[in-house]
């Protein structure tokens, strides 16, 4: 083989000569990679003279790899490109500003401000005409006229501030996201052979000509051609849309494409195309080229994030925040995409989003009604006063003045509306989520989808893996059964017969992935590092403990000499490797789960190392005396066996024939200790009302032992521990279909599912989510690390992938990546999720109190005194600025352990509970009493001039300044009250842990002093004396005392209080919503009308059918067939016994008709009943 370094040219030589320097150009390789299966093989053989020749053209050695010479690597990068796909340009700050301006509330404000500005400069004719009536509250007086523009300008100014804050937030989020993406890219590594050594190389460093090691669970980082493969199967659905796994082999189909997943097997490939020249890269380039289409895609983006143009292969590890990786199939035509879309489970809007959307709509409606009434009353008052009481005629020259009046009324109405809408809400949600996501990084949770963080707070069930999540994933062999002897401690090598020892060492060293190895410890005196598959590392450690060297065996039998490998997969649950014996014939070593391998053994080695028959009764005896005792101690049992083929070549493809008649060498018990912090974490989950279920591939005894150690099951509990087979038998009908009804009887009690396949996991998760048993739908979190956990992770409400042990495929399907693979991090995620929910409730409690008071004050003031006691600019200070900071203060409360002491809220629990409603209305009563007292009697109390009937050009009065100041100080102290939403008494608990809160409160107070003392005309304020300040403060502090009074009133006694911001009940998510990517609740409202009409007809039809059935006594099933096929059958709880509730019944035929009818409401099979 030629060594690449000989051909390194001087760095400045011409590109053309370089092109020719390799035996093929970029375009040649691109064309080659576009071919599939046999076409590819022909092209390689005809055009390049075979794979080995292609390697020599690319100046690389198929065994040793590239030399790693920097000049050579640089040259390859220049000729063939780098393994990077340039990311899409980030949005500029101005674009983000433009986006922020699209907010409806802000648009209303802008229009109002502009109208107000224009009118302030407009002088209508006929102003002095006395016949038009006295301009009582006209803003056209001289003094006011000068300041008339201030109001409009101030509104615009505050709009600008809000827009800049929002845009800056988005911009920093985008920047954070980019930083995170870069970090993930750097961490994303792949095994490459350079200079004969396997090294982990960052994906971006891979060049054409590199020899890459591929194994189960990898996501291929570049295009390549297979050099050597064992039982390799690839999932190419991300590129071709074909869901079947494609078998790869040198003879039939050696083409490997970037962005595809290795589902089984292992092998080596030579990299032929990287970056934008790889198949995925070409698709991305096509996508990026068409910006118009790009815009379309953005609108279709599944989550509210922007679908990012990024190389899936490159940063496959997962992207944080809201931006969801764009699947490579975007480049394929739409029908392909729709076919694909039909398969993927849809996630509806997150619980919180749904509730907030509805609440915002409710508040908006209320605000609109209030403002409409205000405008109406003002106009009526004016018309009646002028034309009825004073009997003035309507003069044409007075029309402009009347219009001026009406516009002023309109502005007052708009002010009321502006005050009613909680502008701070979107900001509070964004801040709360972004803050949590940032902090969760420290708690080893890398959040890929923002809403997952909040959904986690509602989780009611966690289905966790065992290995690595509940246990330490540091496997060690602690017991062994060799030659009729059960060793409870590891035997010393001299006890064993040399022949048996030799078989054990070879059986382990050869029959395990050569990527699994044991490295020396990083620190002196530490434990050796286990690299690769942990179970195999435990076995290799066993070889080392027997004072043998597995490296020597592997050097003697390198990977190229392995004749055939049956790699481990979830169906086989075993691995076998065939080698040629020097004396002729073949030997196959097998290892796998003991009960599976022992079933295939018919011989065993005895004490002397002789082969003796192994009958069924011997096997049962061994299971009873060896395997079960090991398993009950929580050990994982692995059997090592072999088989010789001496007469000719057997049919290797017929697995069932090959994997029989084995000879058992040994059974070992592997311990994987439970993580010390897990039992405490699981106890926390139980207290928090979350059920933890363990789903594992281990046998039932091991699983039960570990579950007991963790505290998932406690002795004497009435809980189920099932094996996958038994589980399937219980939940499937004769046809082998899963029946929700049967599953509903099992899952509430199920705690351990052992020997389960990934399909079982998916079935369980889907069954729990679709179930209608409890009063509310379960919210399920799932952990997964394997490639085949993808579907379950996608189906779950929150999917956790393992950051260390997880395959790329699992990470791609997940919502949160656990960077330390530890179960306790999941509990932290629950805590953060609940905290987000509480933070937003706290903010709502504060915001709505402000809104209720401000709206009522503006409304009554406008109607009684023709002028609001709180001016528009003051309102804006309270509403826009204070709220923005309050959202910052309340949304950044750190979580406390007490969050885990209550049950999850669930989907239907309203955002604003009765207690919160009590607080909102209670504080509103206090504030309104104070303000109305000050408006109508304040001048007497403080002995100052009244501001009520002040002549218009007079400067701002102390009277109204005191009202404004008191109002703001009451809000400020109420902000402290809002820190608690469950009726706790101590509102100061932990206040100093939140520096942001303290600084916001202090900052707002200082700003208020400045506004009152120096705000002057724009803020309609004047200076106050010290005693007046103290009175204002005193009234403000009264809020805290009043808060204590409110918390003494028991919420139960206030039955009349309504809750607000309910979630969507499951029944409301009708079938027609299933097609939508995200269920939009506003749209659902509109569609519901049409649905009800059809439903009415459907229901009448059903009832007629039922009556007919009972008259004829025909079989129940026949009647319902029509219903269940085409339509959704309605289910309704009817309290009176005179109705019969019908549900699709899929019970075994033995059930009698009346029994089926009287059974409780079952809902339809998909688990979504319809209202």
From TrEMBL:
SUPFAM superfamilies: Calcium ATPase, transduction domain A, Calcium ATPase, transmembrane domain M, HAD-like, Metal cation-transporting ATPase, ATP-binding domain N. It comes from the Eukaryota. This is Calcium-transporting ATPase. It catalyses: Ca(2+)(in) + ATP + H2O = Ca(2+)(out) + ADP + phosphate + H(+). Residues 45-121 form the Cation-transporting P-type ATPase N-terminal domain. GO terms for biological process: negative regulation of calcineurin-NFAT signaling cascade; regulation of cytosolic calcium ion concentration. PROSITE patterns: ATPASE_E1_E2. Interacts with PDZD11. Interacts with SLC35G1 and STIM1. Interacts with calmodulin. Belongs to the cation transport ATPase (P-type) (TC 3.A.3) family. Type IIB subfamily. Catalyzes the hydrolysis of ATP coupled with the transport of calcium. InterPro entries: ATP_Ca_trans_C, ATPase_P-typ_cation-transptr_C, ATPase_P-typ_cation-transptr_N, ATPase_P-typ_cyto_dom_N, ATPase_P-typ_P_site, ATPase_P-typ_TM_dom_sf, ATPase_P-typ_transduc_dom_A_sf, ATPase_P-type_domA. The chain crosses the membrane at residues 368-389, 409-435, 843-864, 916-937, 957-974, 995-1016, 1028-1049. Residues 294-318, 1145-1171 are annotated as: Disordered. The lineage of its organism: Eukaryota, Metazoa, Chordata, Craniata, Vertebrata. It is found in: Cell projection, Cilium, Flagellum membrane; Membrane. It is an enzyme of class 7 (translocase). The keyword Ligase does not apply. It is a multi-pass membrane protein.
């Amino acid at each position: 083989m030629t060594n690449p370094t000989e051909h390194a040219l001087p760095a400045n030589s011409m590109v053309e000569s370089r092109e020719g320097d390799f035996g093929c150009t970029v375009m040649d390789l691109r064309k080659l990679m576009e071919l599939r299966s046999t076409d590819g093989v022909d092209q390689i053989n005809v055009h390049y003279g075979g794979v080995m020749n292609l390697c020599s053209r690319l100046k690389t050695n198929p065994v040793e790899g590239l030399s790693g010479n920097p000049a050579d690597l640089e040259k390859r990068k220049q000729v063939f490109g780098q393994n990077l796909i340039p990311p899409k340009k980030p949005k500029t700050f101005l674009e983000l500003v433009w986006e922020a301006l699209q907010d409806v509330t802000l648009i209303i404000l802008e229009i109002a401000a502009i109208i107000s500005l224009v009118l302030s400069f407009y002088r209508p004719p006929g102003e002095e005409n006395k016949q038009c009536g006295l301009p009582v509250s006209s803003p056209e007086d001289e003094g006011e006229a000068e300041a008339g523009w201030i109001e409009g300008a101030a509104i615009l100014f505050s709009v600008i501030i809000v827009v800049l804050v929002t845009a800056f937030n988005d911009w920093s989020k985008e920047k954070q996201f980019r930083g995170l993406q870069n970090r993930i890219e750097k961490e994303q590594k792949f095994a490459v052979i350079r200079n004969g050594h396997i090294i982990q190389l960052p994906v971006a460093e891979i060049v054409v000509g590199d020899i890459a090691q591929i194994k189960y669970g990898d996501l291929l980082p570049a295009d390549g051609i297979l050099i050597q493969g064992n039982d390799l199967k690839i999932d190419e659905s991300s590129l071709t849309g074909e869901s079947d796994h494609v078998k790869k082999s040198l003879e039939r189909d050696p083409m490997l494409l970037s962005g595809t997943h290795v589902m089984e097997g292992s092998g080596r490939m030579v990299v032929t195309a990287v970056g934008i020249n790889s198949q995925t890269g070409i698709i991305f380039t096509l996508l990026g080229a068409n910006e118009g289409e790009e815009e379309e895609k953005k609108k279709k983006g599944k989550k509210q994030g922007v679908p990012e143009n990024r190389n899936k292969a490159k940063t496959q590890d997962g992207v944080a925040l809201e931006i969801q990786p764009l699947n490579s199939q975007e480049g394929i035509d739409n029908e392909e995409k729709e076919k694909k879309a039909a398969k993927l489970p849809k996630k509806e809007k997150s619980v919180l989003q749904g509730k907030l959307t509805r609440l915002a709509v409710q508040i908006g409606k209320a605000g609109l009604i209030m403002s409409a009434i205000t405008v109406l009353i003002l106009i009526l008052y004016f018309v009646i006063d002028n034309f009825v009481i004073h009997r003035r005629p309507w003069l044409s020259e007075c029309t402009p003045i009347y219009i001026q009046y009406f516009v002023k009324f309109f502005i007052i109405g708009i002010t009321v509306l502006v005050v009613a809408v909680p502008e701070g809400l979107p900001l509070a949600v964004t801040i709360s989520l972004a803050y949590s996501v940032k902090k969760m990084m420290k708690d080893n949770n890398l959040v890929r989808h923002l809403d997952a963080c909040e959904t986690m707070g509602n989780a009611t069930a966690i289905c966790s893996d065992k290995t690595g999540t509940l246990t330490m994933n540091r496997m060690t062999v602690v017991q062994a059964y060799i030659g009729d002897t059960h060793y409870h401690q590891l035997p010393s090598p001299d006890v064993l017969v040399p022949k048996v020892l030799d078989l054990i060492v070879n059986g382990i060293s050869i029959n395990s992935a050569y990527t699994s190895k044991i490295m020396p410890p990083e620190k002196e005196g530490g434990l050796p590092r286990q690299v690769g598959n942990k179970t195999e590392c435990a076995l290799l450690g066993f070889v080392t403990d027997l004072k043998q060297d597995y490296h020597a065996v592997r050097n003697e039998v390198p990977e190229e000499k392995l004749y055939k490998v049956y790699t481990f997969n979830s169906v086989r649950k075993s691995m076998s490797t065939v080698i040629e014996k020097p004396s002729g014939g073949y030997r196959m070593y097998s290892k796998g789960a003991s009960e599976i391998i022992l079933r295939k053994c018919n011989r065993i080695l005895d004490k002397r190392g002789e082969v003796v028959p192994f009958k069924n009764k011997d096997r049962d005896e061994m299971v009873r005396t060896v395997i079960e005792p090991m398993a009950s101690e929580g050990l994982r049992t692995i059997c090592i066996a072999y088989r010789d083929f001496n007469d000719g070549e057997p049919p290797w493809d017929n697995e069932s024939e090959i994997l029989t008649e084995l000879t058992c060498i040994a059974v070992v018990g592997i311990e994987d200790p439970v993580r010390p912090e897990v039992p405490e974490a699981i106890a926390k989950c139980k207290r928090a009302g979350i059920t933890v279920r363990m789903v594992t591939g281990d046998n039932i005894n091991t699983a039960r032992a570990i579950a007991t150690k963790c505290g998932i099951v406690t002795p004497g509990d009435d809980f189920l521990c099932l094996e996958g087979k038994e589980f399937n038998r219980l939940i499937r009908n004769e046809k082998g279909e899963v029946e929700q009804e049967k599953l509903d009887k099992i899952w509430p009690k199920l705690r351990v599912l052992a020997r389960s396949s990934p399909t079982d996991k998916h079935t369980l998760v889907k069954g729990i989510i679709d179930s209608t048993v409890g009063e509310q739908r379960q919210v399920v979190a799932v952990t997964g690390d394997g490639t085949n956990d993808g579907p379950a992770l996608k189906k779950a409400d929150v999917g956790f992938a393992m950051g260390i042990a997880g395959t790329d495929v699992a990470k791609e399907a997940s919502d949160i990546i656990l960077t330390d693979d530890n179960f306790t991090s999941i509990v932290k995620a629950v805590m953060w999720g609940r905290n987000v929910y509480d933070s937003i409730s706290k903010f709502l409690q504060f915001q709505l109190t402000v809104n209720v008071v401000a709206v009522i004050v503006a409304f009554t003031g406008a109607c009684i005194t023709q002028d609001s006691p709180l001016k528009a600019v003051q309102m804006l200070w309270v509403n826009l600025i204070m709220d923005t900071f309050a959202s910052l203060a309340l949304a950044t409360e750190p979580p406390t352990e007490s969050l885990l002491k209550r049950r999850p809220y669930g989907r239907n629990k309203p955002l604003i509970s009765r207690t919160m409603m009590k607080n909102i209305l209670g504080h509103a009563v206090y504030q309104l009493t104070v303000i109305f007292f000050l408006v109508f009697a304040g001048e007497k109390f403080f002995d100052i001039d009244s501001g009520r009937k002040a002549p218009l050009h007079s400067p701002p009065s102390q009277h109204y300044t005191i009202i404004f100041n008191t109002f703001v100080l009451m809000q400020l102290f109420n902000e402290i009250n809002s820190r608690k939403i469950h009726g706790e008494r101590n509102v100061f608990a932990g206040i100093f842990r939140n520096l942001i809160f303290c600084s916001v409160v202090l900052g707002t107070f200082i700003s208020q002093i400045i506004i009152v003392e120096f705000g002057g005309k724009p803020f309609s304020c004047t200076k106050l004396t010290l005693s007046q300040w103290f009175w204002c403060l005193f009234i403000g502090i009264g809020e805290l005392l009043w808060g204590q009074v409110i918390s003494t009133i028991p919420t139960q006694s206030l039955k009349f209080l309504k809750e607000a911001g309910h979630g969507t009940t499951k029944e409301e998510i009708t079938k027609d919503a299933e097609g939508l990517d995200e269920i939009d609740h506003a749209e659902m409202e509109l569609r519901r009308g049409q649905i009800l009409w059809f439903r009415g007809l459907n229901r009448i039809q059903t009832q007629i059918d039922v009556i007919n059935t009972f008259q004829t006594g025909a079989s129940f099933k026949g009647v319902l067939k029509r219903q269940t096929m085409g339509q959704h059958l309605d289910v309704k709880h009817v309290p009176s016994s005179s109705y019969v509730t019908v549900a699709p019944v899929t019970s075994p035929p033995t059930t009698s008709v009346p029994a089926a009818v009287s059974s409780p409401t079952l809902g339809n099979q998909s688990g979504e009943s319809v209202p």
